[in-house]
Write a structure and sequence with these properties.
5-stranded mixed sheet; binds histidyl-adenosine monophosphate
Amino acid sequence: MTEDASAKKELAAIKGTKDILPEEVDAWRALESTARAIFELYGYRELRAPLFEATELFEKGTGQTSDIVVKEMYTFTDKAGRSLTLRPEYTPSVVRAIIEHRLDLRPEPMRYYYMGPMFRYDKPQKGRYRQFHQIDIEVFGEKDPTVDAEIIEMALALLGKLNVPDPETLVNSVGCRACRPAYGQALREAARAKFAELCPDCQRKVETNPLRIFDCKVEACQKAAESFPRILDYLCEECRAHFQAVLGWLDLFKIPYRVEPRLVRGLDYYTKTTFEIVSGRLGSQNALLGGGRYDDMMKDFGGPDICGIGFAMGMERVLSIADLPLEKRKFLYLAYLGHEAKKAGLELGRFFRRNGVECLIEFKDRGMKAHFGRANKLQAAWVLIVGDDELRKGRFGLKEMATGRQVEGTRDELLAVLQGR
Ligand code: HAM
């Protein structure tokens, strides 16, 4: 490698991270504004938590046996010797914020949304990054199974607005602290019987948390898991009734779904409902979003005993298959010819911008022909030339590039044209 090439490589973006370039940003913004609009229609408000937190928050929340905590966290020690972690997910941060600010004592509903980057040290591949972005929603204090169905309905409403093709809803229940121990025992016994077929990671999980074997992507482990007992056969009365009610509400919303008994999701905190919305258009990382109920987290954090449920959507994945109606940017290219014209042009540009017209002025001495060439290349909607003649008359010529139409007028008259009045 030449010295130049190696320097370039050293300064490149870190593996698994991506720059979002200006031409991509319009789609990101459209996704963000659509999500905001939908969530606010359902009574959600934005809550912004920090990018990093105490490492224990995720160890306790996301869970000691989850892959995220075991091997995917960006953890570092700060100058005070504290162990901090770049958030791998958002849910524990929201729970912490509620406890810290006693949001539960406020009269407004505890329904929050957020969008921003998350960090996981996993092997990068299509649809899987080390810095990725989630849109996250969480609801607290709603025990009623209706809310489980309502958030799925809201997720599908958003995906519908984004023209995401063929979303498929998978649902399951992972039970609660009352029914999971018996299931865990049955699962452990079944897993012990298949011990030799499991990957070393899953062999460890047999004793620590056999539920996590279902998350493994190794084919042999997935095959072994097919013969494992189904959690749905072990649900206690309360969890069974809750699950049936969720399915009933989904039917009422006319949402097609598939019950997927192996959908235990990779995080330790779930209780009762878990769900994912997947798409066959995505490849192997096929989950557009995933979520579920976590009725014990707040209590486990030492806060009030308030249940929670939510989901997070992968923005990169959604954007890779969404069909967003993006408006082409319309802007005015303002060209000046000479020093006096520059002064007047700047003032004119200021006037147009104050009135909401996007106006580009480049500070280059160009002739008329070069200006038009440049405006063409940039696909400006209009070109306005300011020269000595125009200055003297106080009237300027505006050209609409798509049609070739030319109009002459004062700045107020031209503003009316630019604003489409
Ligand atoms: P999760 O399933 O870990 O759940 O992530 C949710 C979504 O984030 C995934 O379905 C996927 O679209 C996206 N995602 C996850 N990891 C990556 C990655 N490395 N690269 C690109 N996209 C990724 C959670 O994070 C939970 N906090 C969801 C939740 C909220 N449960 C309750 N409330």
